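Lecture notes, continued. The same structure-token format from the folding unit now serves as the input rather than the output. Read the line below as a description of shape only.
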């Protein structure tokens, strides 16, 4: 092989090395962008859980537990829960056990609406917030010995199902992201294959 052949072989080898280096760089850059996106998504999901859905889920669980215990023990019949027929016992449970958690949930929904999974406030959350505000009017009327009815009923199972479902979905996504986020700074699999 002559000197021209050696120069051609050197140029080809150098070109191939440069091409491989560029491909490795591009693949690593692509992997880094994907990693950063997963980390950003994990930060968002963690924030949604920590600041909105986690507290909502815990408060729903507390209120549901109290509600079930009241139903099993001495919850007045539906007719006796109306302001005009309400008992002191019912008002005490409503005002000192259920309503504080309801207010906290409503305030969380309103203050942290930017963390909702959906772009619009879901109907069960709207109905719940409206119910709590409506019930506050009833309580204010009762303080003045007036009778007022709740204009908007509690959304019931739809609200509970929404909160629990959204919480579970976000927890699953968080766990998946935690498993897939790569903490080691080694090259992307495609780049490792080229280097082999």
């Amino acid at each position: 092989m002559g000197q021209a052949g050696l120069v051609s072989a050197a140029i080809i080898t150098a070109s191939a090395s440069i091409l491989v280096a560029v491909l490795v760089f591009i693949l690593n850059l692509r992997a880094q962008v994907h990693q950063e996106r997963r980390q950003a998504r994990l930060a968002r999901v963690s924030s949604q859980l920590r600041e909105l859905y986690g507290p909502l889920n815990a408060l729903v669980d507390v209120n549901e537990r109290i509600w079930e215990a009241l139903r099993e023990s001495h919850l007045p019949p539906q007719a006796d829960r109306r302001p005009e027929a309400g008992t002191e016992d019912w008002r005490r449970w409503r005002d000192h056990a259920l309503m504080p958690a309801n207010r906290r949930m409503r305030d969380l929904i309103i203050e942290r609406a930017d963390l909702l999974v959906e772009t619009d406030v879901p109907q069960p959350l709207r109905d719940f917030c409206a119910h709590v505000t409506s019930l506050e009017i009833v309580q204010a009327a009762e303080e003045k010995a007036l009778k007022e009815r709740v204009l908007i009923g509690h959304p019931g199972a739809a609200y509970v199902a929404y909160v629990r479902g959204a919480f579970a979905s976000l927890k699953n996504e968080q766990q998946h992201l935690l498993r897939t986020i790569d903490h080691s700074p080694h090259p992307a699999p495609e780049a490792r294959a080229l280097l082999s």
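Point for the exam: The two ends are 29 Å apart (CA to CA).
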